[in-house]
Amino acid sequence: MVKVAIFGAAGGIGQSLSLLVKLDQNVDELALYDVVNAPGVGQDLSHINTKAKLSSYLPENDGLAKSLENTDIVVIPAGVPRKPGMTRDDLFKINASIIRDLAEGIATYGKKDVFILVISNPVNSTVPMVAEVLKKFKVYNPKRLVGVTTLDLVRSNEFLKQMLPEDKIDSSNLFVPVIGGHSGDTIVPLFSIGCPEYYKKLSTEQRESLIHRVQYGGDEVVKAKKGMGSATLSMAYAGYRLTSSFIKTFKNEVSKEVAFIELNDQLKGAKEAKKIISEKYGGSHIDYFALPLILGKDGIEEVDYKILEQADEKEQEMIEIAVKQLEKNIVKGKNFISGIETSFSA
Ligand SMILES: NC(=O)C1=CN([C@@H]2O[C@H](COP(=O)(O)OP(=O)(O)OC[C@H]3O[C@@H](n4cnc5c(N)ncnc54)[C@H](O)[C@@H]3O)[C@@H](O)[C@H]2O)C=CC1
Ligand SMILES: O=C([O-])CC(=O)C(=O)O
């Protein structure tokens, strides 16, 4: 039995992501939760002839608690998206309290071993926030919480393909690890490691333009949508990719993914990663970072810290820049929780 719950299921990402999860034959139950329209979206999806049983909830009548009953995986695309001219950090004001309240709900009503995937921005701050709430409620397991940065990897694969049309690259087969965080300069694609054979072919200008496009790919969509939101379809695809890797852990399948995680000593390789980030890149306070990881039945089984030393010179400079920004984002998320009393009773 695998049950997935999606918080923010009636939104741009939420609806497409719910559709993709409904199509997954490894899912037995899908619970939709939103402050608006979840029953409508649920009714619509419930006509699709796939295995997953649908349920949908609004906040009234203990909807949040019910959506979490026996839930194995919670995916959170709840909150507001950017408009042109905004940074992801500008979303903090509104999304922070939404994420805090949902995290408190998970801590109160969720299974102790639930997997939590956070999509809501700013990811660099919302993930530390969720961890702090779970720690406060004494239900935190660092192997089971991730921030979703998969869209950065998806974009890297695709943008590289688009830059080298003659090579006829199948971008669905590439794996460019994108490490650091999920905003601007904190996004560090490691093309030299992911696909050295193609990266070698690029001029310095092409490399710079490719890296910039990955770092600011979100802005391209925000600009093109002219105030109607940010990436939803590509994000649903990326979010489903990571969700499906978590779903597969219930069939004892192991996957390699990249995600934004706490570098907690309980994770194999995390201590080493923290040491390198501190000593080599000056990030002595960094305890969250996106890195490649192995997912298995207990969640994050291993973190690839070696990649931090394998990056080429330019990429190492980018890591150093990322670390500075990331430190501030992480502290901001943590402070938001430590400064505020919880509203649910533990
Ligand atoms: N991690 C990533 O790579 C990406 C993250 N995002 C982020 O995902 C978030 C959602 O984006 P969209 O789906 O485009 O926004 P949207 O506005 O279309 O949908 C958000 C949904 O969340 C719901 N919601 C608001 N408060 C809620 C609460 N307390 N509980 C449950 N649901 C609640 C809204 O009713 C709405 O249906 C944004 O913060 C956006 O920045 C977007 C793209 C990529
Ligand atoms: O740009 C945004 O605000 C949404 C996002 O995170 C992305 O598309 O990578």
UniProtKB/TrEMBL annotation:
Residues 2-147 form the Lactate/malate dehydrogenase N-terminal domain. It comes from the Eukaryota. The keyword Oxidoreductase applies. Its EC number is 1.1.1.37. Signal peptide: none annotated. Substrate binds at R82, R88, N121, R155. GO terms for molecular function: L-malate dehydrogenase (NAD+) activity. One of its GO terms (biological process) is tricarboxylic acid cycle. It holds the Pfam family Ldh_1_N. The keyword NAD applies. Keywords: NAD, Oxidoreductase, Tricarboxylic acid cycle. It is an enzyme of class 1 (oxidoreductase). It catalyses: (S)-malate + NAD(+) = oxaloacetate + NADH + H(+). The active site is at H182 (proton acceptor). NAD(+) binds at G8, A9, A10, G11, G12, I13, G14, D34, N95, I119, S120, N121, M235. Residues 149-336 form the Lactate/malate dehydrogenase C-terminal domain. GO terms for cellular component: cytosol. Belongs to the LDH/MDH superfamily. MDH type 1 family. Homodimer. This is Malate dehydrogenase. It comes from Pachysolen tannophilus NRRL Y-2460.
